[in-house]
Specification:
Length: about 325
């Protein structure tokens, strides 16, 4: 069976990717330091505990498994934290990725699928965000991801590394079969925080800023179901296997929802009140991030089928209410 090295396979998106890969006939090998992931989320293939900053450990794992492709999810991804502690993002995300990319090249593993982000575009009022758009990140998280994109380009030119880069918009939802789901500690993402507030596990959801230049004053984001997102990754992997070369794809639906709209939908889907506070803006937040690209649909044949707000919230809610959520 073809092995895929999945960094961050114990995390939210990585664990869903492992399930999808296993279903598609691959063997996902998880490499994870479980700093933000969970060992019990590694269910679909071997687990290799390790840190991206440990080059010797990476070499050992490449030698043991000889993966055909790397899928690189492992990273810190909290925008607010990246503004308080940029060094953490540059060290782990950028240095860690450099180690990984060098180890892959040295091992002759030249197919690389990378989790990037729409945060690399920064705040571009009214501009349609497609893949050709200028990248001007406004937070350290986005800057760290853009640096890794540049690194992949350079290693491609010099060492023949081929990459598919996915720039994610906002990922939400959970495996509808309930085997894996979203679980961060501390939690920082809108939908799980809101579900916590609905269930009384925190007093209220704080809306970060209500004076933005948007129809209702709150930030707008483009939400994608995690299953649709990882489906695109399997398509990206096949793209590389077919020798189609390096390519960048946005993963968003092209529809934006404000924080208040997400709150309203959550109240309807769960049939519960959402306790809400109105707070200050969060440093590093872009006003609106909505994909304006159909490249993934056109070139990968990607169809985001579960990415309605209702389905994403319903799947997240089912996971949230299952015993799995409480570790
Ligand atoms: N947000 C919020 N309150 C929270 C968490 C998030 O108002 O407790 C807002 C945040 O400002 C952004 C949106 O919800 O506009 C999505 O934030 P999240 O952290 O989930 O993802 P990000 O857009 O930072 O990747």
């Amino acid at each position: 069976m073809t092995k895929i090295l999945v960094t961050g396979g114990a995390g939210y998106i990585g664990s869903h990717a492992c399930k999808m890969l296993a279903r598609a006939g691959y063997e996902p090998v998880t490499f994870d330091n479980v700093s933000t992931g969970w060992e019990d989320a590694v269910k679909f293939g071997p687990f290799e505990r390790g840190d991206l900053l440990d080059r010797a450990r990476l070499d050992e794992v490449f030698a043991t498994h000889c993966p055909a492709t790397v899928m690189h999810f492992a990273a810190y991804s909290d925008v607010g934290e990246s503004m308080r502690d940029p060094a953490k993002y540059w060290r782990n995300n950028v240095l860690g990725s450099l180690n990984l990319i060098e180890a892959a090249v040295d091992a002759g593993c030249l197919n690389f699928v990378f989790s990037s982000t729409c945060a690399t575009y920064g705040d571009q009022d009214g501009v349609v965000l497609d893949e050709e758009c200028v990248q001007a990140p406004i937070n350290a998280y986005g800057a760290s991801k853009r640096a890794i994109e540049d690194m992949l380009d350079n290693f491609g030119q010099t060492h023949g590394l081929r990459h598919v880069i996915f720039r994610y918009f906002n990922v939400a939802g959970a495996d509808p079969e309930g085997e894996v789901g979203e679980f961060h500690r501390p939690e920082t993402h809108l939908i799980p925080l809101m579900l916590d507030a609905i269930e009384g596990q925190r007093p209220a959801l704080t809306i970060y800023g209500t004076d933005y230049d948007t129809p209702d004053g709150t930030c707008v984001r483009d939400y994608v179901h995690v299953l649709d997102l990882v489906d695109a990754h399997v398509r990206g992997l096949k793209w590389l296997e077919d020798g189609k070369g390096s390519r960048v794809f946005n993963l968003g639906t092209g529809k934006g929802f404000s924080v208040r709209q997400v709150v309203e939908h959550s109240s309807i889907v769960t049939n519960r009140e959402v306790p809400v506070n109105e707070g200050e803006r969060r440093p590093g937040d872009a006003v609106a991030l909505v994909s304006g690209s159909t490249r993934a649909e056109q070139e990968l044949g990607w169809r985001p089928e579960r990415s309605t707000l209702e389905t994403m919230i319903a799947d997240a809610w089912r996971w949230h209410q299952s015993g799995h959520y409480e570790r």
